[in-house]
Amino acid sequence: MSEYIVFDKDHHEHHHKETFITKYIFSQDHKMIAKQYLFTGVIFMGIIGILMSSLMRMQIAWPEEPNIIFEFLLGKWAPDGVMDADIYLALVTMHGTIMVFFVLTAGLSGTFSNLLIPLQLGARDMATGFLNMVAYWLFFVSTVLMVASIFVEAGPAAAGWTIYPPLSALELAQPGSGLGMTLWLVSMAVFIASSLIGSLNYIVTVINLRTKGMSLTRMPLTIWAFFVTAIIGVISFPVLLSAALLLIMDRSFGTSFFLSDIFIQGEVLHYQGGSPILFEHLFWFLGHPEVYIVLLPALGIASEVIATHSRKPIFGYKAMVMSILAIAFLSTIVWGHHMFITGMNPFLGSVFTFTTLLIAIPSAVKAFNYITTLWRANIQFNPPMLFAIAFVSTFITGGLTGLILGDSALDINVHDTYFVVAHFHLVMGISALYGMLAGIYHWFPMMFGKMMNKNLGYIHFWVTAICAYGIFFPMHFIGMAGLPRRYYTNSNFPLFDDLADTNTIITVFAIIGALIQLVFLYNFFHSMFYGKKSPQNPWNSTTLEWTASMKHIHGNWQGKIPEVYRWPYDYSKPGYKEDFVPQHIPLKKDEEEY
Amino acid sequence: MITLFITLTLVFISIAIWQMIKIFDLTRALKGEKIDDSQIANDKDNRINARLMLGFLAFIYVITIICVVKYGHFPLITDAASDHGIKNDTLMIWTLALIFFVQTITQFLLHYFAYKYKGQTGNKALFYTDNHKLEIIWTIIPAIVLTGFITYGLLTWADVMNISEDDDPMVVELYAQQFNWKARYAGEDNSLGKSNVRLIDIDRANILGIDESDPNASDDIIVTELHLPVNKPVLFKMRSQDVLHSAYMPHFRAQMNCVPGMITQFLFTPNMTTEEMRNTPKMIDKVLTINEIRDEKSKELIKKGEEPLDPYDFDYLLLCNKICGKSHYNMQMKIIVESQEDFDTWISKQTVFKNSLIAQN
């Protein structure tokens, strides 16, 4: 037990007793909650998600051969080492769900919004520490439910992460749509509750708890990104909740929101009048903004990391903010591009093509601004910087193919093929992952007071970067050859026999890419305990978090909260000897802000 | 036992890495080298990583070139087997050209700047915060280019999805169920009999739920292999009896979901018979390659005492492209495009619906 001191706004000192439970488990401190999200969302769920994708890739590359790893990990679902077709679909589904929601939504936003919003804005903690704790524990419950669903008798949900009914609604359609799907839906309902509470907390904190001088236009781009992400979350997640609730009604209480005229396994079901397309609309009304819920925090982190490590102000700060806002707005009116060929009215297809392709404009602005930031910089190649540059690279590569998928006429032939898999993995999967890794390497000293080993960081980065392209670049080609995704094996189509070699190469890259993450894990845990002690501001950064106490104390700053006098990107400003001027340093006489 | 073995291996590998790093550091310390253990990039790290950045740019270009050379024949962007497919392919090629152009330039700038402006002690970056002219340029240029592509795309889309009765299309129903396809021809009257899955009567072999009292239904023809006459517009009406499926006919650049409870549609005009497609140079190559691969596999199978694989010849296919359950990966139907005469001969041999029903006492 230790005593610690809390400073409230009026600087009265309070003394609290802190126990192990209040400090490490039911903590209300945003820094501890950030770490809890990091361990549950990123590390724990990340390992499961990546492992699942490796199993899928092995199945695709060597479909007929018995595999001892399948036998070991899948047990009864891989009798004699041959994977069951139902469990392949379950892996597809759970990999998608875990990666999109648990790792890249809760893990990414949960870790970095929690850590950085109070620290970079100069707040003692989140607006409400209690709700912050509730949000984490709801997330924890949803994690437990989702993981538990993997172990149910008939297997976990297997209808794809988009859980389109009727497949997800009828146990007669596939075994995964029984208890596994029930747990999936309940877990997601709890997850959404957690996400909403968390997001509201972020929004309120950003609006109300900025320190003196921290005007909106002096906020770091990370905070802008987290703020807008939280707003998109609050707007769109409730719609998924309603879809999940309606689906639960259809499944359990005999309603027909999404189901109509079904004859399955020799019987006519009573459902009448519903439409699966309604579900698709509700799902994608969240599902597409979700892409930006995943991507924007990564964009924010990349902005911050690129500016810091290139020792140069981010180019076009205002344009960056405007493009975040434009992307956020557009992201809520493009969901129909997932549904061009679902039977939706073709006129709607035209509208969604138009709005979708517009997103390319703010995205292009962002990409060009990043590139210009590097121009005549003084780039320090620390591991976070490498990941941030690679983020821009995959963001471009993945984003460009969106021109094909967003174009309804072209989508007809590549829809639901491996082309889509390659596109979204690069633009939101790998990009967001890079943003997250950049964030972890960059703020690790802030979180644990230690430095991560840079050489292991370099090895981790370069192997990962090569594997990411090695996996997803060739995948575009097999997608354009017409190979549908979510096929357990392609051996029933001699037409695709000539793609098999490419698939094997992709799998080899995928396995190397997965294994190299062990180096990261090793580096992470080893540095946490035995890493070199970090100096106060290892990257010579300008933002406020590096002025806070490196030893975590409740309330973040010993003594007064620093005031802010300038924007967050005064790197290499003329007139100063150092190549950075922190935000809390007052402007000199006659100095212009920027 | 295996669990224990794998866990132990992983633990040992971790310890080995840890110890190796320690030994490495120690030897350097013993040699008297000055160790920079700040874990912050120094000039040497910057130099090495900057070169690697340039190397990575080369890697991106090389992997692009390798993929284009080795896999460039995979994409279905030439030899479309339908009228609208040819237009789609042109749009696709233009879009791909734009993508490769932008990709090559932006990746170059990104990685080259990263290389060129590597950090060096004593250097200072340029304090350059914004430039409205530049921002406007790279807002306007993408906007103009996109306007062109959006317009082109929308015109193509309108063209593909426009279903005009003037073409007098042949009406064919595609019927999806876990895990197979059926097709129903409308017969002489070219209009399909009404249907609903509630009318399915397995005992009478009314497997598609066709309304027996509808006069349009009597001459309908249900088949499991799709035949299409060349150069005749076909209007597909899609139905599903259980879950979502998607009728994907990649060679015709056609795809539409089959949704239980509603009828979706897609129209296209096949313009190449199966025979003609088999004789395109690209397809001859493809079939040759595939048969070489299959021969190799067959040899292995024979060694194991199993049946060899059949040689492959190209056929158009209808694939299911929406996750639909266990055997989703094997839900296919052969499509044969043939001359009008061949088609007429084939269809005249099929049993019409009213004769296919089993009489019940």
Q: Which tags fit this structure?
A:
heterodimer, A: 594 residues, mainly alpha, Cytochrome C Oxidase, Chain A, two-stranded antiparallel sheet, 17 helices, 4 strands, 3% strand, globular, B: 361 residues, alpha+beta, Immunoglobulin-like, five-stranded mixed beta sheet, 8 helices, 10 strands, 45% helix, elongated
Write up what this structure looks like.
The complex is a heterodimer of chains A (594) and B (361). Chain A has helices at residues 20-25, 30-61, 68-74, 85-121, 129-149, 179-208, 221-252, 276-310, 317-331, 346-358, 360-374, 383-400, 402-405, 408-414, 418-448, 454-480, 500-530, and strands spanning 2-7, 13-18, 263-264, 267-268. Chain A is mostly helical and 594 residues long. Chain A has a single domain (2-547), classed as Cytochrome C Oxidase, Chain A (Up-down Bundle), CATH 1.20.210. In chain A, the strands form two sheets. A two-stranded antiparallel ribbon of chain A has the order 1-2. In chain A, strand 1 and strand 2 form a beta hairpin. The longest helix of chain A has 37 residues, at 85-121. Chain B is an alpha+beta fold and 361 residues long. In chain B, 45% of the residues lie in helices and 15% in strands. In chain B, helix 3 runs antiparallel to helix 4. The longest helix of chain B has 34 residues, at 83-116. Chain B is elongated. At the A-B interface, helix 4, strand 3, helix 8, helix 9 and helix 10 of A face helix 1, helix 2, helix 3, helix 4 and strand 7 of B.
Could you say what the CATH topology of chain A is called?
Cytochrome C Oxidase, Chain A
Enter the CATH topology name of the domain at 169-276 and 311-356 in chain B.
Immunoglobulin-like
Largest interface, C-beta closer than 8 angstroms, per-chain residues: A-B, 135 and 127 residues
SSE string of chain B, helices as H and strands as E? HHHHEEEEEEEEHHEEHH
CATH C-level label of chain A:
Mainly Alpha
Note poorly predicted spans of chain B.
none
Mean pLDDT of chain B: 92
Q: Order the strands across the largest sheet of chain A as they lie in space.
A: 1-2
Q: State the fourth-level CATH superfamily of chain A.
A: Cytochrome c oxidase-like, subunit I domain
Name of the CATH class of the domain at 169-276 and 311-356 in chain B: Mainly Beta
Q: What's the oligomerization state?
A: heterodimer
For the largest beta-sheet of chain B, the strand count, sense and barrel status come to: 5 strands, mixed
Number of strands of chain A: 4
Task: Name the structural class of chain A.
Answer: mainly alpha
Q: What is the approximate shape of chain B?
A: elongated
Structural class per helix/strand content of chain B? alpha+beta
Question: How many angstroms does the end-to-end distance of chain B come to?
Answer: 64 Å
User: What does the radius of gyration of chain A come to?
Assistant: 24 Å
